[in-house]
Prior knowledge:
mainly alpha; 3-stranded antiparallel beta sheet; 12 helices; 65% helix
Amino acid sequence: xxxxxxxxxVAFALTMALTPLxxxxxxxxxxxxxxxTDGPQTHLVKAGTPTxxxxxxxxxxxxxxxxxxxxxxxxxxxxxGLVLTRPTGFTATGIVLIGLFVSCGFVGFIxxxxxxxxxxxxxxxxKAKVVGxxxxxxxxxxxxVYYTGSIDTTAISETVATPFISFTGKxxxxxxxxxxxxxxxxxxxxxxxxxxxxxxxxxxxxxxxASMMAFLAFLIIGFWQYRHWCGGPRPAANLCYDVRDPxxxxxxxxxxxxxxxxxxxxxxxxxxxxxxxxGSLSLGAxxxxxxxxxxxxxxxxxxxxxxxxxxxxxxxxxTSFKLTGRRVFRMSPIQHHFxxxxxxxxxxxxxxxxxxxxxxxxxxxxxxxDFLRIAG
Length: 376
């Protein structure tokens, strides 16, 4: 747990220190966020606010991940005569997750750069964005499923949350898919979650706070799985989690959560810097990757309840307009509907954070209830 705490603190401290410096540098480079003229008019005052803040927390998360491993390497291999089973070096699971995080962030960086260059809110096309995310997710999926074994074909659980395996070798609650099927699932989940976070981003601090809660949830899940891990020194009396490198998942989630805490200081209203697509796409991809690697895919839409709501509002709006010519909301995603209805930005953000927190609490409730049900 010490390594996770160190990673979270390093990510927080570095992001707190580097974000204002990045904001000043981006401002000098005139890397300001173009504002849509057809959106809420209150957003026009935000024109020129530095964007691409995602670059900062991508870098700090990676550095914090490395710092966490330095702590793991320094910790004793044996405590009270018990040989500990934990990763001391970098694992395949961690490398593929960090690779997914960085590569999807690069797709968003291209989108941000084109927006700045063209001085228009339209960057790369939606199709190009999907292609870029799909390529990154496919590489991640193929490496994880075919070469490293970080993800196997039992990554989808029939239960609400938890993949267990008993000491008799009998799988409990697994739904098997083929390797190709697993890669397809990974591509779909990465695209859905990355675009969900991207659609949620739009108000100061909204996506940052919601992502922070999601990472905290996966930190708890990863550490709990490590404490009851089939490969650990003290597996559960009856059942244990059949996942790959759960401590690594907690370490990455902790680093990302710490970075979100630091970034929120500067991103909350009035934001001094925006995360941009480089931030939102990388965050969504990492959240999906953690759900896949921890085999809690069915918990993903609950942990990301706010992302699901914002995405659904866009789908409803587009479908309604195409079929009937009428709009259900004044504007989508739904947070802008409430802006046009007269709600203040801070009020919307705080209330949406509450929704996100409720989703995370329900997901963790399912997770631990499933553990108690099967283990009891």
